[in-house]
Amino acid sequence: MMTDTQMALDEPGDQKRGETVEFVVAQIRQKIIEGRFVSGQRLIARDLSEDLGISRGPIREAFRRLAADGLVELTPNRGATIRQLTRKQVKNLFQIRENLEGLAARLAAENIDEGENRRIFTDVWEKVRPTNTPLPWHIFIHQNRQYHGTIVSISGNDQLCELISNLQLPIMMYQIGSAMLPENAAVSNEDHVKVAEAILAADPAAAEEAMRTHLRRSHNWVMQLPDSAFRRKAD
């Protein structure tokens, strides 16, 4: 049975339809983050329609929106599937990340005392800095994205921010996140501390090197995952 909210969202009209599509997009994103939808899983419009109490039209439109964001793939006669990257695609992304995010860390350190940058970074760092308590992988991934995203945002380079946002990194992180072991998270946390210390010390060279080392080490353990963690081949 539909809730009042779902009935309201499913009312006709461009505005209501837009709200409904945004609702579906948010629901699917959240299920990916929580690990309820996994890479390679097919999304069935009928099932989502019954689950959310929403007609299939907005759900199909949400699929197209998610496909444009690189989170799902639309295939004729198959529908929507949560995107899964090949081993080579993941390797390529890490190579790009090392260079772009290394630069972002350097610029963040250079600009840490510009405007509100120090306060912004410190506020985020206090929320995501490592503790002795292991985190569920989806929370770790969320905090990891927030941490890296803040560094990029205070770099002061809009073109760099756009380039990194276009890499479609979330789907890679969701894909490999569930395979992360406690020791992998511990190493990542150690690296985050070194990057943060260098940025807060306004040391551009150290910040860049720490970020490059961090991404290189993450790349190494990801490449050791079994073939089942990756898509077999690109289309």
Q: Which geometry do the CA atoms define?
A: globular
Q: How are the strands of the largest sheet arranged?
A: 1-3-2
Question: How many helices in DSSP terms?
Answer: 11
Strand-residue fraction?
under 5%
From the helix content, strand content and strand pairing, which structural class follows? mainly alpha
Write down the CATH topology of the largest domain.
Four Helix Bundle (Hemerythrin (Met), subunit A)
The H-level CATH homologous superfamily of the largest domain, spelled out, is GntR ligand-binding domain-like
Question: What is the mean predicted local confidence, pLDDT?
Answer: 87
Q: Characterize the biggest β-sheet.
A: 3 strands, antiparallel
Low-confidence stretches: 1-12
Can you tell me about this structure?
This protein is mainly α. The protein has 2 domains: 4-82, Winged helix-like DNA-binding domain superfamily/Winged helix DNA-binding domain (Arc Repressor Mutant, subunit A, Orthogonal Bundle), CATH 1.10.10; 87-229, GntR ligand-binding domain-like (Four Helix Bundle (Hemerythrin (Met), subunit A)), CATH 1.20.120.530. It contains 11 helices and 3 strands; from the N terminus they run ααβααββααααααα. The chain has a 3-stranded antiparallel beta sheet with strand order 1-3-2. The chain is globular, with a radius of gyration of 20 Å. 31% of the residues are buried.
